[in-house]
Amino acid sequence: MSGDQKQIVRPYGDTTGDGMVQVSFTLPVSHDKRAEGAAVQLANRMGMDPAMVVHAKPMGDGFTFFVVYGRVNHLVDLTAVQVVERDFPLLSAKDVNTVVKQRLRRKLSVVGACIGTDAHTVGIDAILNVKGIAGEKGLEYYRELKVTNLGAQVSVPELVEAARAERADAVLVSQVVTQRDAHLHNTREMSAAFREAMPAGRRPLLIVGGPRFDETMTDELGVDRIFGRGTTPGEVASYLVHALITQRKATA
Ligand code: B12
Predict the structure, then answer these.
(1) Ligand 1: which residue has its CA nearest to atom 28?
(2) Which intervals hold domain B12-binding (predicted)?
């Protein structure tokens, strides 16, 4: 953090430090004056005062979507913010290939899938497919990585079996749907299955990703790393090298 940056901050809307924020939500009521009043009441109870409905749109029968703009008095203490910082160096594809070739002396095997009923494959494909994302090629592009992408709606037993057959060094799971915490349940089921099926030391690195994961939950979910929205293939490849080769050798 730079020296002149404040430690305590508050939101900025029209003028510095005015505390103005904007939130959106849907209420199960038809759109009328009373519905807008209900939205303001909710915003007030959330600590926004004054609060103003700046957008309201009927969402089918009996539902209204709102955008509310208003002031909060809450402060943010930047020194108390907890996040997972990247604790490994970002490597180029060339460097990843070189380290794997020289130090592992075989291809590094990666098995990926969307598990449970989740069919949102765009995220895992962005990480694995050659096409990649954000101008970066996916892991299939890396000469020294062997990628097996199982696709959508893979069951946990199928995933464990594929990881065994491919002698996976790492298993990459994507979970996008979060309804009823499906992403958390599925991830716990997956990590428990790997722990049961394989002894410690033989277990592949377990990595999950998706836009709504809390990256600090690795221990609770029994995984080695969580990647959130905006992840790029280069970050994942660099982490694989760090966790499976560089760090492992250093601590061995
Ligand atoms: C495309 C899409 C679909 C497509 C999926 C096509 C496909 N082959 O993937 C289709 C139309 C099939 C679909 C269906 C459904 N969808 Co949909 N869908 C989306 C949408 C519009 C975009 C998702 C996407 O592709 N993002 C782009 C990728 C690149 O981003 P990403 O997934 O976040 O991935 C990045 C990171 O998260 C990370 N990452 C992700 N996974 C992994 C894994 C690893 C290992 C790593 C390292 C990193 C990583 O890296 C990626 C690259 O940066 C979202 C809304 C939105 N705008 O996000 C809704 C959304 C995800 N869908 C939603 C829903 C509800 C559904 C349905 C249930 C709808 C229905 N009633 O039928 C079905 C469920 C189908 C199923 N069985 O899963 C909801 C989920 C809500 C929730 N709370 O869970 C969303 C949020 C829409 C909404 N606002 O309601 N959907």
Answers:
(1) 123
(2) 107-251
